[in-house]
Design goal:
The structure is a homodimer of 253-residue chains.
Chain A: E1 3-8, H1 19-27, E2 30-34, H2 35-40, E3 49-53, H3 58-68, E4 73-78, H4 88-98, E5 103-107, H5 112-120, E6 121-122, E7 128-132, H6 140-152, E8 157-160, H7 170-181, E9 187-192, E10 200-205, H8 206-211, E11 220-224, E12 230-234, E13 237-242
Parallel strand pairs in A: 1-4, 1-5, 2-3, 2-4, 6-13, 7-8
Antiparallel strand pairs in A: 8-11, 9-10, 9-11, 12-13
Helix pairs in contact in A: 3-4, 6-7
Amino acid sequence: MGILYIVSTGPGGIEYLTPRASAALEQSEYVIGNRFYIEHLSPLLDGKEIIFSSMGAEVERAQRAAELARDHIVSMVSGGDAGVYGMASIVLEVLEHAGYDGVVEVIPGITAATMAASRLGSPLSGDYVTLSLSDLLTPWDVIEKRLELAFQMEIPVALYNPRSRGRPHNLGKALDILSRYRTKDTPIGIVKNASRPGEEMFIMTLAQLADNDDLVDMHSIVIIGGAESRVWQRGDDVRGIITPRGYHNKYKY
Amino acid sequence: MGILYIVSTGPGGIEYLTPRASAALEQSEYVIGNRFYIEHLSPLLDGKEIIFSSMGAEVERAQRAAELARDHIVSMVSGGDAGVYGMASIVLEVLEHAGYDGVVEVIPGITAATMAASRLGSPLSGDYVTLSLSDLLTPWDVIEKRLELAFQMEIPVALYNPRSRGRPHNLGKALDILSRYRTKDTPIGIVKNASRPGEEMFIMTLAQLADNDDLVDMHSIVIIGGAESRVWQRGDDVRGIITPRGYHNKYKY
């Protein structure tokens, strides 16, 4: 009987990979996943059987992992947190349908949203919404309805898959909706390749981003400030975004 | 000139502490934080000056850290992710007011919500909302409005601070609101002390939890399924909750 680890690898390098995830990889005979995420882990994968799978082949990848895990120790790797826009759900569904009776463990990881947030300061400090603008698996009208409600909550919104070559207009459409509920100076943070080579960060207002949304790509996370979010300054320099938790209403500091 | 690390320690033990967080602690002369979180880290803290601070003293704690970090390397530790209901925002606010010009780095961590989700299977697989039921810093009418909108989104909701001795009725009130938007068999997962000693997990329907909400305490995370969430079974055993990402609409498996 085998073991299937669904291993969250975090946002990039092994600096943000937990010891629990490392231990699972070390114990595994097979490591299966998207090349992009596996390549970041190469120092940990000596002597393992590596199975590269490509984007779009998630169902096939999950089936292959389930098959191998009948007799082997297998790690299915997934970037960020496997349970947030990752491989966990499809793998568990496939295991269920296949009647798999081995051990399965989902190992959590640093999400792309909280990694990006940490680079920006503290934009997600309290309540927040996590939404994806990809309409590959969710119809656009459902996404639009969720955006409408999320913006009415007046709390920060972290956007995954904000824009790609195949979906160049979804971010613009989301910002149009945003401008019906929030002022033009709403602070928005964009982090590209957070914690990976080529990391970049931008802090803009809603009005500025609406005119420059082509700087956002599929490796970006966009964090839209809530009604209480504000720019975090050092002197005249914009450092990031803070969403205060409300201590200023109760204490002096 | 000093360094201030705002270190996310994850949900509990050092199994889920990232190498980046460990390295920051190792480099620090002072470690300051709530006793509950510091105690989990004791294997890493030999020879450091430890400053325990109590719950409710967050502003004072942040001020102390900012003061020490003028001349020292200091780690302010915060459970889960420091940027999600943690110490990051108040520390950054205090640094800003104090005109601090040293280095500051926010180090992200595994959030309590994604740790709990991993124990339940994959309940937060796609879009989701993160809300706290604590009305210590946010007025209850604001929380209620956010709950109303969140439940209309029909996506999963992760509840922090769902219930405590001081706030025994907030979860019940939230479930009352939920029952206006979702059916009585909505799956809800409760994880107590996720990844810590005494870990427990419950999967219930909305109707069942409404009658038993006293099993939820301040060390619990409650994850309310969205319209597409369902129980994850192995034979007749309930294993957890899955929110499918929609692959079943496009593929056979």
